[in-house]
Inverse folding.
């Protein structure tokens, strides 16, 4: 990599601070809420950013793929796909971000108007500035710098600004992957929609999620004569301790994840009887499980079913298991995939940190790519204020992440 040229690009990006804040302000002023959040969808925000991209940068291709949705006034949810041609078209580097936001929530918790960007202590505040406008602004200014300096990227660069990420992605990335052949197996795909404050986490994998409702039926009676009833709470408590054994049964480790093990935790408990001197005839508790991808959820379910059977026999209760949420993990992006290697090098060059490919316990939008066999990673340098009041992002991080993208786009 040409050091002097790289320096010029970095300097150019440093000069965009005010413009980045300006773009954040304009995007924040157009709330893009999906219809399930009582919003009009992303049409206005998409129209604005498309025009901005044409005027401020200029792309070789700039298309909009609409997913029909009659719940919004425009009748569809916009997905923008922009391509800037590089020296080679053998593969593309993609950055995918989403245009929609979540509602601000309780307004009294905000120190300023969520839809008017406030700048303070090097941060921009407003709903959407981090989630996910940070992820739109950063690749855009990387490309603006290259364009203004007359530098052709090493390979074709693609931007996908999609709708509907916050409410299921059916009209966003899912629609794009299913209906338009824009992504290729050899492409490098980066989703700047999660991260850590020092920018060292590259998310490559996720655990399966399984939430289970456990209902135990016994027989209510007076607490002084327990022999006349069946204590559902006591029986359920025995099942809770048996469920703890899942940690020993499924004790596989994978150091990509933090924590490196599967977790099986009893969590919510529904109210039973209002008074102390009643033996409860009903008990309901819930289990939150985050399971390593190599372990099948069916197998875990069978094991819990067997444990429940033992408790039923021992106590004479009836136990019903009902899944509340069940999401089998997508195959992981390999830790040595080209996208991980290239992105790590760029992060190291700009921030001086050794990035780590990691797995997390919750689902991310990258799973839609991974299920289709595309190697996608999630990365950005953010404080993770997503969905919180007083959401902010650091201007320094916008500048830094734009440099990382620029460097990545110039890398052969
Ligand atoms: Zn997001």
């Amino acid at each position: 990599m040409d050091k002097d040229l790289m320096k010029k690009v970095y300097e150019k990006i440093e000069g965009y601070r005010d413009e980045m804040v300006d773009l954040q302000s304009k995007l924040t002023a157009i709330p893009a809420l999906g219809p399930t959040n009582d919003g009009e969808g992303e049409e206005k925000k998409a129209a604005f950013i498309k025009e901005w991209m044409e005027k401020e940068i200029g792309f070789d291709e700039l298309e909009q793929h609409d997913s029909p949705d009659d719940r919004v006034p425009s009748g569809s949810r916009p997905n923008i796909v922009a391509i800037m041609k590089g020296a080679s078209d053998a593969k593309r580097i993609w950055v995918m971000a989403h245009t929609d936001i979540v509602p601000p929530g309780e307004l009294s918790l905000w120190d300023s108007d969520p839809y008017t960007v406030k700048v303070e202590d090097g941060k921009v505040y407003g709903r959407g500035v981090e989630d996910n406008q940070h992820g739109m602004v950063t690749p855009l200014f990387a490309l603006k710098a290259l364009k203004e300096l007359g530098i052709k990227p090493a390979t074709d660069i693609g931007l996908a600004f999609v709708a509907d990420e916050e409410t299921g992605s059916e009209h966003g990335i899912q629609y794009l992957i299913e209906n338009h052949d824009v992504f290729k197996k050899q492409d490098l795909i980066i989703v700047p929609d999660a991260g850590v404050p020092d920018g060292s986490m590259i998310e490559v994998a996720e655990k399966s999620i399984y939430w289970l409702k456990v209902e135990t039926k016994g027989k209510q009676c007076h607490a002084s004569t327990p022999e006349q009833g069946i204590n559902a709470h006591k029986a359920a408590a025995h099942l809770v301790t048996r469920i703890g054994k899942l940690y020993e049964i499924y004790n596989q480790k994978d150091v990509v994840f933090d924590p490196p093990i599967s977790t099986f935790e009893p969590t919510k408990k529904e109210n039973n009887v209002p008074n102390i001197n009643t033996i409860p005839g009903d008990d309901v508790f819930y289990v939150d499980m985050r399971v390593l991808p190599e372990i099948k959820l069916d197998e875990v379910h069978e094991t819990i079913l067997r444990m429940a059977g033992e408790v039923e026999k021992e106590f004479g209760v009836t136990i019903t298991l009902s899944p509340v949420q069940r999401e089998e993990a997508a195959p992981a992006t390999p830790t040595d995939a080209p996208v991980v290697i290239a992105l790590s090098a760029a992060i190291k060059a700009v921030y001086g940190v050794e990035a780590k490919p990691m797995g997390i316990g919750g689902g991310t939008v990258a799973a839609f790519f991974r299920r289709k066999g595309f190697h996608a990673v999630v990365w950005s340098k953010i404080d993770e204020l997503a969905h919180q009041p007083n959401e902010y992002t650091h201007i320094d991080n916008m500048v830094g992440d734009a440099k990382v993208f620029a460097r990545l786009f110039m890398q052969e």
